[in-house]
Design brief:
globular, binds pyridoxal-5'-phosphate
């Protein structure tokens, strides 16, 4: 592990206290609904997200793919989602392979499209009728990952839901970092997620658990999701071992996300002052900092030599993510390393 690991909030390791909660977990056979810790986590998340029921799954990717598969019937149905959202760039083409989905990317600043843009995309994309793929599903990613951890404004989410409903479409919330949005906005999780037909959150991002995510929806939706979980091999046995970490995270790792956000902002403010960095710190709302430098691979390599990790996407774009294994000192070290890296690169 690098001394300062800003590569991703997925790389957190369970704290000693979380490991103690894992060790103490009561367990049973999850597939028979006999694992009390998993059931407790599912009930907690259903409640938290304002839905009837929830289902513990091995990953957020499986939450997205199962939900999309339930909303979309293979054979020419269409889903609308922001550019560079996770199902498009990081799920190995799952929506096409598993659901036969026709995908329409909707443009919007930092991954957050406007209701009117969605309306135009749904209504104005061709001759319609039997010629057109059938619109079926709208997805929202909160916070936006490749958009830079941005928090969709609540009224825009409501506007998007209104447009989707006016066209009779289903709605799905990718809430991998929903709790970051909750802490950044002060708006509770149910207000963000309750209006969607399905919604989920990940325990392995800023919440710091080792495994798992939870998908929520109506009781009928979750019953159907169980079938897909079984088929895809996501049904587990003594999953309370990992569900316990999720419960621990909901109790102890939510409020502290504010520290990650403050550190991300401080990192952004420091980076923005360096020569060659293109970044507006005011756009940093949660724990993700995305910026451009003249040569991103060389920049990240120079950081790595100084034991600081960030990731690069393409020739100029860099992403840094704060989380519970990065403290104030880590931000100072990252800024010092970035200063040296850019000094060397601009000679
Ligand atoms: C990480 C992530 C996922 C996938 O979650 P995994 O638990 O890694 O499978 C989906 N959507 C977004 C926005 C993510 O950041």
């Amino acid at each position: 592990m690098p001394a300062v690991n800003l590569y991703s909030d997925t790389q957190t390791r369970p704290t000693p206290e979380m490991r103690a909660a894992i060790a103490a977990a009561e367990v049973g056979d999850e597939q028979l609904r006999q694992d009390p810790t998993t059931v407790a986590l599912e009930e907690r998340v259903a409640d938290l997200l304002g839905h009837e029921a929830a289902l513990f799954l091995p990953s957020g990717t499986m939450c997205n793919e199962i939900a999309i598969r339930i909303h979309i019937r293979p054979g020419g149905e269409r889903m609308f989602l922001g550019r560079a959202t996770h199902p498009l760039i990081a799920e190995a083409g799952g929506p096409a392979q598993l659901s036969g989905a026709v995908i329409t990317e909707v443009d919007g600043e930092a991954g957050m499209f406007e209701p009117a843009t969605l309306d135009a995309a749904i209504g104005g994309s061709g001759p319609g009728g039997r010629y057109a793929p059938r619109p079926r599903l709208v997805c929202v990613e909160q916070t936006t990952n490749m958009g830079g951890g941005r928090v969709w404004p609540l009224d825009r989410v409501r506007g998007v839901l209104d447009v989707a409903r006016s066209h009779g479409l289903d709605t799905h919330l990718d809430g991998a970092r929903l709790m970051n949005a909750v802490v950044a906005s002060g708006v509770d999780a149910a207000s963000w997620a309750g209006g969607f037909d399905s919604a989920w959150l990940d325990f392995t991002k800023g919440l710091g658990a080792p495994v798992g995510a939870c998908l929520a929806g109506s009781a009928a939706f979750i019953e159907e999701a169980w079938r897909w979980k079984q088929m895809m091999g996501g049904a587990m046995r003594q999953s309370g071992i990992v569900a316990a970490a999720g419960l621990y995270a909901l109790d102890h790792h939510v409020e502290r996300l504010a520290d990650d956000h403050a550190r991300a902002r401080r990192l952004a403010e420091g980076l923005a002052e360096l020569p060659g960095v293109a970044l507006d710190p005011a756009t940093v709302e949660s724990n993700i900092v995305i910026f451009d430098v003249p040569d991103a691979p060389a920049f990240c390599a120079a950081l790595a030599e100084q034991d600081v990790a960030m990731s690069h996407f393409g020739p100029t774009r860099v992403r840094a993510v704060t989380h519970l294994d990065v403290d104030d000192d880590g931000i100072d070290r990252a800024l010092a390393a970035a200063t040296r890296a850019l000094g060397a690169a601009t000679v």
